[in-house]
């Protein structure tokens, strides 16, 4: 592993995103700011009266709900919903330390993928820090099940997600993807995949006050005739790619990047959080390892896609 790849990473300067919450339908602004070494990812909220909550760690122990999206408890009955896409973007790019601030109850959905976050983060630029990056190395396999679905974390020499979905629906059907993580491959293969839903289910959700902000601008909508979006799919297997995007965001709630293999069949936010919880329940399941002790070679200087502000990336590490 080279000198740069072993170091922790934050962003060079603050970056702001404006959009709507997919469930609340309310406008929201999200700010990502650089943060200190060993601080990890944190989130806080600006409330209606202008006060700011104390930042809390983006951590599985903070999950208050995994229904429809991943919601974190910020104390005092204050929540931050739909954190998984922005956290996926940060984790997918290999950013260890950052502070997220939102001025509403929910992160903006933007185009339903992580790509707008990725582009903004890369425009801000990545900054490598002085301390070594740390990983959670999986030592013993842990599996959680729910009927025929499961999620597992297993010892593995690398960072791999092997994810399969199986929908009783002709448009989606059964799709599997094995993703060998690097920041470049995250941007190229995962970040652009949009969230998806069924038109009939969306009607029910709206009646219950959810999915009020969902539209063809931010979701793939499926009905009995197929896909409603005129532009079609961004990838033939966009659905499994989006599930991988979600899983990368959910697994980042372990607090440190995972060194090992994640496997999932028909999983989702709930199983993803449960497998983290099970893994951390027994200390013999894992150990915290410094990056320079692992045979990984990512984050090399050429490990970001062309055209995506590589010059700011280069400047930041120069
Ligand atoms: Zn999602």
Quick synopsis:
With 318 residues, the protein is α+β, with helices and mostly antiparallel strands. The chain has 7 helices and 20 strands. It is globular.
Question: Which ligands appear in the coordinates?
Answer: zinc ion
Query: Which percent range describes the beta-strand content?
Result: 25-35%
- Fourth-level CATH superfamily: lpxc deacetylase, domain 2
CATH topology: lpxc deacetylase, domain 1
CATH class: Alpha Beta
DSSP summary, beta strand count = 20
> How many separate structural domains?
1
- Low-pLDDT stretches are none
Overview of the molecule:
This protein has 7 helices and 20 strands. With 318 residues, it is α+β, with helices and mostly antiparallel strands. A hairpin with a 7-residue loop joins strand 14 and strand 15. The two termini are 18 Å apart. Bound molecules: zinc ion.
């Amino acid at each position: 592993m080279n000198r740069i790849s072993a170091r922790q990473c934050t962003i060079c300067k603050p970056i702001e995103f404006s959009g709507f919450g997919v469930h609340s339908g309310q406008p929201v602004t999200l700010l990502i700011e650089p943060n200190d070494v060993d601080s990890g990812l944190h989130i806080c909220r600006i409330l209606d009266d202008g006060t700011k909550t104390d930042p809390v760690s983006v951590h599985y122990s903070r999950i208050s709900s995994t229904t429809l999206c991943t919601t974190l408890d910020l104390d005092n009955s204050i929540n931050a919903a739909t954190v998984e896409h922005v956290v996926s973007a940060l984790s997918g790019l290999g950013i260890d330390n950052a502070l997220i601030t939102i001025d509403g109850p929910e992160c903006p959905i933007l185009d339903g993928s992580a790509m707008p976050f990725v582009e903004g983060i890369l425009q801000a630029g990545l900054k490598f820090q002085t301390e070594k990056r740390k990983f959670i190395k999986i030592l013993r396999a842990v599996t959680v099940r729910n009927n025929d679905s499961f999620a597992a974390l297993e010892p593995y020499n690398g960072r791999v997600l092997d994810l399969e979905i199986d929908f009783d629906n002709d448009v989606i059907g059964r799709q599997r993807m094995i993703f060998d993580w690097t920041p470049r491959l995250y941007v190229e293969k995962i970040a652009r995949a949009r969230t998806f839903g069924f038109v009939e289910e969306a009607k029910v959700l709206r009646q219950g006050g959810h999915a009020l902000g969902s539209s063809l601008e931010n979701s793939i909508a499926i009905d009995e005739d197929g896909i409603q979006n005129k532009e079609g799919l961004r990838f033939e297997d966009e659905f499994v790619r989006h599930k991988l995007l979600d899983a990368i965001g959910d697994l980042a709630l372990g607090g440190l990047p995972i060194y090992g293999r994640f496997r999932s069949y028909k999983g989702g936010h709930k199983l993803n959080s449960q497998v983290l919880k099970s893994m951390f329940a027994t200390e013999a399941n894992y150990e915290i390892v410094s990056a320079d002790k692992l045979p990984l070679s990512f984050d090399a200087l050429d490990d970001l896609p062309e055209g995506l502000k590589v010059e700011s990336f280069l400047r930041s590490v120069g």
